Amino acid sequence: MTYKFFTPSLLSRIGILLFLWLAFTALSPNFSSFSNVYSVFEGFAIAGLVAAGVGTTMLVGELDLSVGSVAAVAGIIAVQCTGFGLVPAVLIASAVALVYGLAQGWIIARTGINSLVFTIATLILVRGVAFAMTPTAVLMPMDRIGMSDFLIFRLFIFSPFSLTTICVITALGLFLGYARWGREMMAFGGARNEARAAGLNMRRPIIIAFAISATLAGLAGSLASIKSASAAPFSYEGMLLTGVTAALVGGVSLYGGKGTMFGVVIGVLILRVLTAGIASRGAAVYVEYLATGVILLLVLVVEFTTESPQRRAWSERRAFERQLAAVSVPA
Amino acid sequence: MTETGVSLLDMKNISKSYGHVQALQDVSFNLRSGEVMALLGENGAGKSTLVKLLSGLITPDSGSITLNGEPRTLGTPSAARAAGIAVVQQEFSLVPTLTIAENLFLGSGDVRGLWTGKRLANLARPLLDTVGLEDLDPRRFVSSLSVGELQLVEIARLMGRNAEIFILDEPTAALSDVEIVRVMQVVKRLTAMGRSVIYVTHRLGEVFQIADRATIFRNGRSLDPVPVSELTIDTLVERLLGRHLGEMYPPRAASLGAPRLEIKDLSTPGLSAPISLTARQGEIVGLAGQMGSGASSVLRSVMGISFTSSGTVHLDGTDITKANRQKAISMGVGYCSDDRKFDGIFQLQSVMKNLSSAAINRFSTAGWLSNSRERSLAGQVASKFAFDESRLPSNAGNLSGGNQQKVAVGKWLAISPKVLLVEEPTRGVDVGARAEIYRNLRTLADEGLTIIFASSDMAEVKGLSDTVMTFYRGHLIRVLPAGEITDQQMMLDVTHASVSSTPTTDAVNLSDEV
Amino acid sequence: MPKRAKLWLAPLALAAVGLVAACGGSTSTSAASSAAAAPAAPAASSAAAEPAAPAASDAAAAPATMDGGGKSISVFMPSTSNNYLAEWRRGLEATAADLNYQVTVVENNFDQSEQDLQIQQALASGTKADIYVIWPADSKAGVASLRSLSQTGVPTVVANQPPPAEAVPFMTMYAGVNDYLNGQVAGQLELGARDAAIAAGMKLNSPEGNLVEIMFTPGYQASVARHDGFIDATKAAPFNMLASEYSGFDAEAGYNTMSQLIAANKGKGIDFVYAHNDALALGANKALNEAGIVPGKDVMVVGGTCHGDLTALENGQQYGSGLQAARLEGNVVALAVARYFNNDGTVLDGEDSPEPSPEFPATSTAPYKYNYIPNPGLVFSSDEAANKAILDDTVLWGDTMRNLCTY
Amino acid sequence: MSTIVETAAKPRLVMSRAKAFNVALAVGVVVVLIVSGLTQPEFLSADNLVATVRAAALIGIAAVGMTFITLTGNFVSLSTEQTAVITAILCAMALGAGWPMWAAVVVPLAVAMVIGALQGIFVALGLNSIITTLGAGAAIFGIANVITNSKTIQARVPDPMWLGTARPLGIPIQVWIFVVLVLITMVVLRKTSFGRTVKMIGSNSNTARSSGLRITRAVVASFIIASVFAGICGVLLVAQVNQAKTLNFTGFNIDVVAAVLVGGTAIQGGEGSTLRTALGAIVIAMLTNYMLLAQYEYGTRLIITGFVVGGAVIAFNWVRGKSSS
């Protein structure tokens, strides 16, 4: 059993994606037009960044719930910093997010608190920071509105925004697949006790994962806000759910260690095709909710049935170990 | 087997206490280069404290450690690693989702930057070769390896970190005999390369096979190391317990009652051919077999855990073939798996709740629990299984391995069972607690309970059972009264040595474990 | 245990991050002065209302002279899982159908970035609509999208909330509610309530009368606009404002906020309540009743946007309401579009703030830059039959208030 | 011949864990009360305290229900909000259609029960609870929109339902229901074999299975309880405001989870109590109420709430680590 990239579970997801695409094309022929592909990729740009970030925390067996709030704060910072130019503004906002992510990761690694629990607190807290930063509710740098043009400038089916996302996700995928620290994160997520016994630094993977998720959320929030030429403190609340859903649909396990960035990409594309397809049919948003719910349950069942019994026994065993590990203090 | 090796590690007058509990008291330990030092002792005698100390997880309260003639402190795991001390974990430290090569370098920091398959494979090759895994592809996922291979990969990893002193903590506990042979060969190879090995084990037979000297711990104190050549099993046990063991195994049943559990032509996943067996009231049936032999499949099938494809199971004449677990339990069948941490005990619950967990119905009326009935039920179980009642309120996870095992097996008494099915009744349990468990099981059988257990420990099967059944690869090989089967025959059966010629003579000797 | 010792650092580190972020914020917020005095309504807007009432056939008999000839209106709006938006959409579609316009709607889930995308997609597809209507997802955000729509040369109508002054050049016109006006109407109603209270011999707890204001959620521009309108309308004879509290949109939120405000101001006493919509007012009424304070007798409650449960208006527990109807907002958009095409794309400067009229407006003249809906304030008394009559007999643009307020 | 040589003295610490949690929460409540009473005298008025508990009631009821799911080791339910919404809508529709009150309450709750049971069965089959409830929540919300056509549903009950406005002994009925449900669930968890099973599953589901405990039944029942309790919130809302729409209960999921966590229930299951969850909900409500009285800015309020939730989970984690290490 050597490395197989196209596992049955990944192939089944690609199948779902193709099916959705063909179905919508059949319903409305111009669904496959360049412009639509372009827009699917545009949507992919934001959701992809968030899903990749949240997915990374899921890969190490944690979950960062604060991404939406972080994106909102980053968006506000970026919009406020547009005076320095687009790239510096995005970099500053992402850097603040990075610092935040490092701090959050450090606390989680240090205290050993379940991140699902801890980030519920930061989700509230950081949202509060967003409100505290914007007494006037919505920020609009009208004089610098032209900046958004660059982000939606169209290159074939891509824009600078979607290209940025694709580059970032590719880099992240390579990092997780081939860099020492990335492999350590996968090892850590896959089998925490074993990784500890192997002498792995038990904090680094967590800190890196949370730094990545916060940075990518910050990047997504700042780019999206500059693109909208506005930032509001209540923005991006739905980002978390989209990100988690996409990662799950893409085959990232909530228990860690299982999943690839390519899977995340497929997951995001499935959701984007669904959203674009449903919106283009003029249907109400709640139809999308229904469809997302069905897709999630479908993926769940597919997962459940394609997983081999040994693999399942192994995940059960590991879930059990995590349960035990969660109550003991990390070394 | 270099008796002349120079002293590599010298620990003198080490003491360590946790609160007011003295774990190590004035302990001395000495290891020469190129030797295998067996480290023996019951659970709680201080072995694991010493191992923790050597691996840098804890620091001693007093005493000195000298390594290669230089005084050392091993305050942290990384300091211990840097000093060349490596622990081959009892619970494996390999990550199943990574490849062998990746695992070899995980946590070492030796290979920085990019981890591409080819680069790692090239680096991994020589390491795997040294532990006799020449034919293993380093790019394979660890999840596809057998337990023995895992252990060897683990050793290879430590080789890669230039470890001088290998601490093997019960390396063979979960291995089949064939794999044990492989591990032993590698241990010999290590010493031939001048590395030293501290070999912690409960299996006394292995001491004679592999160790040069043995250090015995008793109640937090160490005895002077003794060359193995000067020891016999009897003297070893005597030193270990500080007394004569007497009979490890209680006498067999004088007479057996009526047939209680009748299995006819049972076939289930794990069995290659249908089997039949009849267990009588008061009888202890031992199913001997290596991992994957099908011995435990029989138990799991009876319990309704795994699917029974054909055949019948009758309990006192009632057909329970199709019974699920709850039904089986209500009929008076108890089952204890070989992995107590996984599904034997509730580590975070009190011993009392553990003991009563299988019998909630017996102290509840229409769904309402009665605390007093629960207490008295747990008290009865505790006294039957020689369990200290004052421990009922403590969390099961805080008990020693032996006591945890007693909880895992003993809790079934709460259902007043007719039949008790046990896999590996004494895995990872020290000698003293073993004897106690054997005695308890025999007492229960004498009171009329039927016990069927599966074990890969041949001595245990022979010593405890009234009837022995041997299994090999899904086939029932032989059924004999325990008194009529020889160690030799059992070992041949379970390794199928009579047909295949793989096992060495070493394997046969392993059965003389206490 | 030395590891635990540094645990207290954790909250500190968090605080530091928060502080850094907050400082970054406060320095530059001042730079981003929001000019925007213009009123706007919230996206996840106010109101809620009754389902029932026969979903009111749109009595909107549109002027027959303005046939759209099947021109296409492309609408970008947030989710109709919000009942106000759903009613708005129905109003728009009904009038558009009467006037022979084709409507396509693209919804987003109150997500500005999603709306940006949808607009980009629409623009990239190359097939242009004859006119665009955009209801910005995030309050006043979405300027960039408005701008890219305007750059296509296709006329663009902004709905529900006018853009800030700087973005006005990007829009052809605005059609919808005037939240500032809505606040003013409420202010005038509250002034009337004070007169009525004094006339009825109600003892005020302070000479000006103690007032609490219950607003929408924080960050909604409509709250700001309504608050400003209310303050301006009562500038001459201000109330003693005890508290101005953010709440939510539904009755439960109104109830919770009010019950806590009652407790908080027990010593001072509350005479007047201004709730930004009638759902909040309904919840506030419940809380007041429970506390033994009878609305309409001990305290005067005024609400904003009208909303399905009209019992408080009928039984006189709510003194008055600024009756803003979601369907009219939809009607007025389609109407403005038709007037625009009927006059070859002429848009007059200034604003059109029509008086409430029973008939559906027959104007086919050119639209104005700002086309508002009528937003009458209705006063209710203790006479239930009379109150019901007000609701049933007040007809606005061809339908009764009761029907308009029921969605 | 006992051969047990063991590190003693652990049991005492472990036994005190539950007590330590209760003490921690009680200390938290007292500190909040003292500090707030000193700085905002209105805070301690009986009316205000009742209003605060009333404000905590709905979140508290749902959180008490969700505690069962958490105790079984299935983390949390992310469909609580949507279940409450759809129950409220069905209840309002039934009342609007002229059904008698008992039927308008019982039938929607039965639907909530079915919703919970379906999710419970999925989870008991081995599917991940987070994904199951996330998907179910999305689907339920979609269905809620379809059946209401995005309109507000009016209950049209001429007189306010007593279920919404009654105040026996001057205390709102919601508070009574809250208290009664907390007491019932406390008894259920401590005194029934179902409650025992729930905790044992959360402690180690594999051992629970091998001990013959009825896991499927208990997990399904836990989801039913959580779902029905969420449904009760929906019914109470309708009783209170006479109407329902899909946007009610926005943000409810997070609030409910926060209450469970501030109550110190172990997220991995097996340990926790509904009383503590209830206290968690009340602590959050008191904090919110205090900050409202003290006229804090909205952003500041969120930041402080975040700190309190974070502080609580850090504190509980610390207590837990101390008593189990």
UniProtKB/TrEMBL annotation, chain A:
Membrane topology: Multi-pass membrane protein
TM spans (from-to): 6-27, 39-60, 72-103, 115-139, 151-176, 206-226, 238-255, 262-280, 286-305
Gene Ontology molecular function, alphabetical: transmembrane transporter activity
One annotated Gene Ontology cellular component of this protein: plasma membrane
Keywords: Cell membrane, Membrane, Transmembrane, Transmembrane helix
InterPro entries attached to this UniProt entry: ABC_transp_permease
UniProt-annotated location(s): Cell membrane
Protein name: Unannotated protein
Organism: freshwater metagenome
TrEMBL record, chain B:
GO MF assignments: ATP binding; ATP hydrolysis activity
Keywords, ordered alphabetically: ATP-binding, Nucleotide-binding, Repeat, Transport
Pfam families xref list: ABC_tran (PF00005)
SMART domains: AAA
Start and end residues of each ABC transporter domain: 9-244, 256-498
CDD domains named in the record: ABC_Carb_Monos_I, ABC_Carb_Monos_II
Keyword hit for Nucleotide-binding: yes
SUPFAM superfamilies attached to this UniProt entry: P-loop containing nucleoside triphosphate hydrolases
Organism name: freshwater metagenome
Listed name of the protein: Unannotated protein
Automatic annotation (TrEMBL), chain C:
GO terms of molecular function: carbohydrate binding
Subcellular location: Cell envelope
InterPro entries linked: Peripla_BP_I, SBP_2_dom
Keywords: Signal
Chief location category: other
GO cellular component, one term: cell envelope
A Pfam family hit: Peripla_BP_4
Periplasmic binding protein domain boundaries: 73-341
CDD domains assigned: PBP1_ABC_sugar_binding-like (cd01536)
Recorded family membership: Belongs to the bacterial solute-binding protein 2 family.
Protein name, as recorded: Unannotated protein
Species the sequence originates in: freshwater metagenome
From TrEMBL, chain D:
Keyword terms of this UniProt record: Cell membrane, Membrane, Transmembrane, Transmembrane helix
Gene Ontology MF, one: transmembrane transporter activity
Main location: membrane
Coiled coil: none
Example of a GO cellular component annotation carried by this entry: plasma membrane
Membrane-spanning segments: 20-39, 51-71, 83-99, 130-149, 169-189, 218-241, 247-267, 274-292, 298-319
InterPro entries, per database record: ABC_transp_permease
Protein name: Unannotated protein
Species: freshwater metagenome
Lineage of source species: unclassified sequences, metagenomes, ecological metagenomes
